[in-house]
Amino acid sequence: MGDIFICHSRRDHELVVFMNEVCANAGIRAREFEFNFAALGRTTNEEIITIMEECSALFLLLGKNVSCNLHTSNWISAEVGLATGMGIPVWVVEDWFASIDFPVPFVDHYIRINVGDPAHRDPEHHSYMQEVVRAYGSHPARRGDIVIPGTNYLQCNTGGCQAVFAVHQPFEHIEKCPVCTVSQHWDSPPLPPISR
Ligand SMILES: [Zn+2]
Questions:
Q1: Ligand 1: centre distance to CA 167 (Å)
Q2: 187 CA to middle of ligand 1, Å?
Q3: Contact (CB, 8 A) for 80 and 105
Q4: pTM exceeding 0.85
Q5: CATH classification at residue 82
Q6: Which of 98, 102, 49 is nearest to 76 (CA)?
Q7: What digits encode the pLDDT tens for the residues 36-91?
Q8: Domain that holds residue 41
Q9: Which of 57, 111, 177, 181 has its CA 20 to 30 A from that of 100?
Q10: CA distances in angstroms from 112 to 11, 60, 122, listed in the order given
């Protein structure tokens, strides 16, 4: 069984609770790296890699607090870079109601989740993510991406970006590219899956 690596700002409480509930309900262990800020300069890649080696996917929880603190945003970027280098798929799970200008250099999957407003909370988001996490948890190889039925792929229209990423909701719900953060609309048919 593969674990799930989660990176986030501790202040994005609702997203953190959502993802921990998803993992608990799926029976999959959620992992994260606990930074010791008293020994920040002595933190090594190996410490983080040791945990990531037991994980099948990284989920970056993109809430409004990820860019409030330079320590948080820089360490998030480092974790995403390490995961990508290890062949671990990177998911960006964004708070639906937060407008977040936080470019993520490597994105395999992008989904916007309604966690902030209980009146409009979508239980389908919870059950969908539960299935996704469960699929990664039972991924026998623990490396490389899994095939999620119904996944579509978008390519960023911005000239200097052109990032390709999987989306898990209708195109009209995707308002920007998570890599360059440029707002855009997609009206082209989905791209076929890419191998990495
Ligand atoms: Zn882009």
A1: 14
A2: 15
A3: yes
A4: yes
A5: 3.40.50.2300
A6: 102
A7: 777 777 778 888 899 999 999 999 999 999 888 888 899 899 999 999 999 999 99
A8: 3-149
A9: 57
A10: 18, 12, 11
